[in-house]
């Protein structure tokens, strides 16, 4: 082996050793940064989970994180972002150790980051006004397509019964049932109506066997038919008179004007149910349109809607019990973060001691 070859091998060995030492030092530094040095915490989201920097109120996510970090004696520095996506982008670039806020835990995001267990379970909800119905809104159900269709069928049946009575009686009782078709069927329908209503004026009565069979059969049928019809109309009127303008499920929003945050998951959700979407920039704008009767309802994340309602109790609003697109909110970490175990364990401890629940109740109504 020549001197040149020996020198080359020596230099290659030195370079390899230097590279290994550098890599090992970087890994050790990363571990040390995750456990002992100051953490860089990204903050993003909206109320009630994250408040503006100049606010005296922190928010649900911030308070939970600070309780958690206090228990672990972690030092950290906040870095605020305008949107959650901006914060997650910085996380993926290695600029942050964790992102704190209402971060939705989704299967798509799990491909390039990791999450703590959920500290809050969210969903989409519907908020509408509590208004008294107008007179037209109360009687409107009586003019529904289904009811008009039922009335049409009833008139057809009535005409058939009237025609049968006329055919059975026209020869034996021409003074009661005229020979003219229109007059005769009209008289038969009158007799059918009197029979059904049990008024019994006595001005018309069948005298033939077949006429009496038809009339007797109609009496039995009409009792069942009339009572069902009257009960249906009565219940419709009762419910409409007691009703309000609130919406309890998303199916009722078809064709209605609904406000939601533009480009949010709730916008795509409403498109599936054929609602007329009004896009807004924030919850306050959406609620303003609802109160001013520019829209019929607002659909967005339940906790944000609850927080607004808690702080605007003078506005008569109703939030439906129905929940859609349920998802958990958690803290986001790099895929190889060493913090996740400690965070999850401490979150469980906070939950077991009701500390998480107390923080949530501070911002949202206890009933929810």
Architecture (CATH level 2) name of the largest domain = 3-Layer(aba) Sandwich
Tell me about the biggest sheet? 10 strands, mixed
Query: Regarding quaternary structure, how should these chains be classified?
Result: single chain
Poorly predicted tracts of residues: 18-36
Q: Helix and strand string, N-terminal first?
A: HEHEHEEEHHHHEHEHEHEEHH
Which characteristics define this entry?
alpha/beta; single chain; Solute-binding_3/MltF_N; Helix Hairpins; about 50% helix; receptor; ion channel; Ionotropic_Glu_rcpt; about 375 residues; D-Maltodextrin-Binding Protein, domain 2; rod-shaped; ten-stranded mixed sheet
Describe this structure in words.
It is a single chain. With 368 residues, the protein is α/β, with parallel strands linked by helices. The chain contains 12 helices and 10 strands. It has helices at residues 3-35, 60-72, 84-92, 135-139, 145-169, 181-197, 209-242, 265-272, 283-291, 302-310, 340-352, 355-363; strands at 39-43, 76-80, 98-104, 114-115, 120-129, 257-261, 276-280, 297-301, 317-319, 324-333. Strand 6 (257-261), helix 8 and strand 7 form a beta-alpha-beta unit.
């Amino acid at each position: 082996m020549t001197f040149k070859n020996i020198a080359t091998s020596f230099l290659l060995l030195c370079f390899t050793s230097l590279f290994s030492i550098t890599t090992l030092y970087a890994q050790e530094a990363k571990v040390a940064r995750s456990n002992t040095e100051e953490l860089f915490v990204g903050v993003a989201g909206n109320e009630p989970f994250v408040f503006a920097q100049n606010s005296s109120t922190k928010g649900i996510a911030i308070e939970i994180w600070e309780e958690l970090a206090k228990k672990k004696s972690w030092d950290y520095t906040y870095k605020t972002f305008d949107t959650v996506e901006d914060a997650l982008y910085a996380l993926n670039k290695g600029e942050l150790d964790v992102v704190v806020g209402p971060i939705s835990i989704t299967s798509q995001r799990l491909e390039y980051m990791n999450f703590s267990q959920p500290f809050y379970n969210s969903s989409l909800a519907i908020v509408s006004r509590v208004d008294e119905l107008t007179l037209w809104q109360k009687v409107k159900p009586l003019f529904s397509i289904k009811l008009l269709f039922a009335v049409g069928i009833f008139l057809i049946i009535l005409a058939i019964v009237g025609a049968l009575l006329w055919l059975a009686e026209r020869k034996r009782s021409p003074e009661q049932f005229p020979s003219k078709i229109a007059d005769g069927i009209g008289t038969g329908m009158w007799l059918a109506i009197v029979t059904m209503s049990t008024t019994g004026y006595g001005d018309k009565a069948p005298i033939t066997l077949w006429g009496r069979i038809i009339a007797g059969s109609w009496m039995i049928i009409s009792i069942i038919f009339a009572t069902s019809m009257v009960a249906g109309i009565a219940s419709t009127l009762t419910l409409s008179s007691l009703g309000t303008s609130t919406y309890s499920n998303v199916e009722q929003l078809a064709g209605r004007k609904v406000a939601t945050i533009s480009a949010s998951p709730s916008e795509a959700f409403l498109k599936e149910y054929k609602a007329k979407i009004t896009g807004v920039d924030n919850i306050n704008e959406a609620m303003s349109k609802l109160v001013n009767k520019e829209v019929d309802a607002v659909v967005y994340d339940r906790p944000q809607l609850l927080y607004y309602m808690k702080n605007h109790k003078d506005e008569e609003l109703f939030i439906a019990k129905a929940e859609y697109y349920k998802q958990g909110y958690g803290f986001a970490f790099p895929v190889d973060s060493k913090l996740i175990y400690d965070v999850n364990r401490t979150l469980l401890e906070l939950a077991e001691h009701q500390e998480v629940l107390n923080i949530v109740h501070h911002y949202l109504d206890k009933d929810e």
